[in-house]
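User: quick one, fold this
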Amino acid sequence: AKQGEPPYRDSALTWLLKHSLGGNSKTVMIATISPCPSCVDETLHTLRYASRTRYIVNEPIVNEDTEVRLISQLRTEIQNLQDTLCSQAADPSDKDDVITALEAKLGLNEQLLEELKQQTGQQLVEWQLRETERQL
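Assistant:
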């Protein structure tokens, strides 16, 4: 086994279960053994395998697209800026330069949001083309 990889990865069964055992999920190992004397070797192999898998530690993480998260953050910021702008516009004592700066920031955020939407749309079209090619 390569350095840093536990020895349980040398098994054919582990290879079949690699996404469950070492992936981004919670896994339960159930070992079925037989009391039959003719199955002693198989029972011992099963128990050894189950014993080794006991030491596997998965650290699941949330699968989140960075672009989707960024778009969500930008939408929240745009909404906050719009709320701030509306509240400041209702108060005539505020300075016009604050309103102008907020409008400029809002415009930039909306422009960035549109660019991200276009990029995401282009990536989706490219992905769909690749999937269509793979199916053919």
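User: anything notable?
Assistant: Residues 96-135 form the longest helix (40 residues).
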